[in-house]
Amino acid sequence: MKNFFVKLFAAMKAHKGRTIAISVTAFVLICAIVTVCCLSAFLFNRFATGYVPSDTALAEINNNPANQYKRVVIIGVDGVGDFFGKIYTPNFDKMFSQKTIGTTEIKASITYRGVAVYPTISCENWSSMFHGVRPVYHGFLFRDTNQRVEAGEHSKNEDKYPSFMAQFLAQKQNGKVLSVCTWRGVNNGIIENDARITKYNSYVADVYQFLKNYNQTTKISENIMTVVDESEQPTVSTTIRDDIPGIEGQLYDYLSEQVKLYGYADETIEMRDAMTMQRIISETVSDPDKYQIAYMHLDQVDHAGHSYGYGKPAYSNAVSRVDMLIGRLYDAYEAAGMLEDTLFVLCTDHGHRLPGGHKNHGKNTSLEVNVTFAIAGKTVKQGTPGKYINTDLAPIVAYALGVKADKDWQGRVPYDMFSTLS
Ligand SMILES: [Zn+2]
Ligand SMILES: [Zn+2]
Questions:
Q1: Cα(108) to centroid(ligand 1), Å
Q2: What is the DSSP string of 246-270?
Q3: Residue among 227, 185, 239 nearest 203 (CA)
Q4: Distance 219 CA to ligand 1 centre (A)
Q5: Is the model more confident about 248 or about 36?
Q6: What is the pTM of this model?
Q7: Which ligand is closest in space to the CA of residue 116?
Q8: 3-state secondary structure of 352
Q9: Are 379 and 420 in contact (CB under 8 A)?
Q10: Span 385-411, pLDDT tens digits
């Protein structure tokens, strides 16, 4: 080896001119390769991940009632990653399947290989999902981001990169949005404060009041004092209906059984998720024309991931319970005749690490990065969508409602997700 270098240096000395020429050529070549790689990455980022719907494409929705939805219902399931693809979830399968309702053809598009943004932390991802940009742009990046949004901190760039909710309200003057969260971070810091966005955060006090104020005859629980902002004080009197056709009395039966078994101290997260789902159902079925976007944030799967790890029985059970709640939503909408004019979306921020070691998420292992994305409605294209990244949620919801994407959003509408877009 030593001889090789001695010979090489001797040869280089003897052919100085040639050595310089070869070095310059090699340098230029390397520069060219690096430039091509960077350019390709830029072009891929810009164009290859999906559509930016044109004005003509949006007119196809806004001028054609057959392509319009009365509402988009978004089921946000924290921390479930790709696990919907690995477990028996009959209600998820029912909601996200091809079927005919009346004269309307409903189609579904599902992927379990969507991609979270890095780092795979809740605040970073939900912010990217709502505001359509990567974390470095919305600015929530490491440093206790979850706690900061819980405390009511908003992105400094909230005006520059509006959420799909704000974008919708800016373009639809009579629009109204509902957001009910078990994890308060999304309501307190990620979604803009706006008089036309109604926010409720589900705490265990809601469960307690629901059972205490429940009228067995009417199956309605009134005067539930609820938290609606980061003050964490219950300040608004609300009503939750349990008389919804198709699911009458189910919430009361479920919660009273849970309380009998565990009391209020244990496993309250699943009861809070049940309240979150019921509030979405109760508010939208009671007044179907009121809200055009209804978002819910369910948190029990993430809790199970932190306590037990990805794929453990408790994690599976949490996903099964979320599936049960999806079934309630589906049954209530079916009974109310609301399935055909609803677009259902199910999304998640990240997955979890395997059990063993530190149970958490935040890194870029495949189980943390891969996410489920499912969508069902009359303008959806049946099958599997093209590449889905979490920044795509904002443009997807906006497009489905005929709303123009913000010019600074980095997310795109994935290829092959909508039959109305090509
Ligand atoms: Zn999360
Ligand atoms: Zn978590």
A1: 25
A2: TSTTHHHHHHHHHHHHHTTTSSHHH
A3: 227
A4: 34
A5: 248
A6: 0.90
A7: 1
A8: coil
A9: yes
A10: 999 999 999 999 999 999 999 999 999
User: Residue 332 and residue 378: Cα distance in Å, rounded?
Assistant: 19
Q: Find the 412 Cα to ligand 1 centroid distance in Å.
A: 22
10 Å CB burial of residue 1 (0-12, 13-18, 19+) is exposed
Angle in degrees, CA 331, 394, 48, rounded to 5: 115
Which tokens belong to 399?
């497009």
User: Measured on CA atoms in the order 15, 20, 25, 30, is the torsion positive or negative?
Assistant: positive
User: Token pair of 41, please?
Assistant: 């990455």
Q: How far is the CA of 180 from the centre of ligand 2 (A)?
A: 18
Answer for the pair 132, 394: CB distance below 8 angstroms, yes or no.
yes
Confidence class for position 47, pLDDT limits 50, 70, 90 = low
Instruction: Look at residues 129, 70, 80, 73 and name the one whose alpha carbon lies nearest to residue 295.
Output: 73
- pLDDT tens-digit series, residues 77-93: 999 999 999 999 999 99
Q: Is 175 left (phi over 0), alpha (psi -120 to 50) or beta?
A: beta
Mean pLDDT over residues 282-306, rounded? 97
Q: Which ligand has its closest atom nearest to the C-alpha of 120?
A: 1
Per DSSP, which regions of 30-185 are E strands?
71-77, 99-101, 104-115, 177-181
CATH architecture of the domain 57-400 equals 3-Layer(aba) Sandwich (3.40)
